[in-house]
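re: ur question from earlier - yeah i can do the single chain one, its not a big deal. heres the input i used so u can compare w yours
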Amino acid sequence: MSAPGLPPWAEVGQKRLAHIQRVAELASRWAEQLHLSAHERDRWLRAVWLHDALRDAEESDLRWLAPEFDGPADLIHGPAAARRAAQEGESDLGVLAAVRWHSLGSPEWDAVGRALYCADFLEPGRTHDPEGRAALAARFPEDPEDVLREVARLRVSWLVRSGWPIPEITWRFWNHLVGT
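and the output i got, formated as tokens:
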């Protein structure tokens, strides 16, 4: 796969591109603070640039790319982007899993998925509780596991309050986090 950046097949508007750029800036800052190798930093950034690459695509196109995913339209862009990235040469299974499940969480993730999940939620353009999110983002390099648990708690709590069903992979992710 090429160097991190938006892939040529991406379908994103300006608002979505700005979000992806903020996620990339946050992940880059964390990678630097954590003194990650260039290889690992590149993995993180590939996942960031791919995670919402098809967020603004037509639902029919997304379902064609990810026919095995029968979830809501708002969540299919991850599985579709992971499939497309694999078709285009991305072979890192950790990057692909991060992209596929970035909206839901996954107990099988490596550090790439965990970082993307947090950076996507904590990027400074989010309007809900900007001070709380900024505090968590600042704390990530010091205690990534605790910040991950807190981000997951916030996301799962929101699902419970919304009355939506909790996807099976999300409750497995939550149980994995609280069991560690």
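The mean pLDDT is 94. not sure if urs matches, ping me
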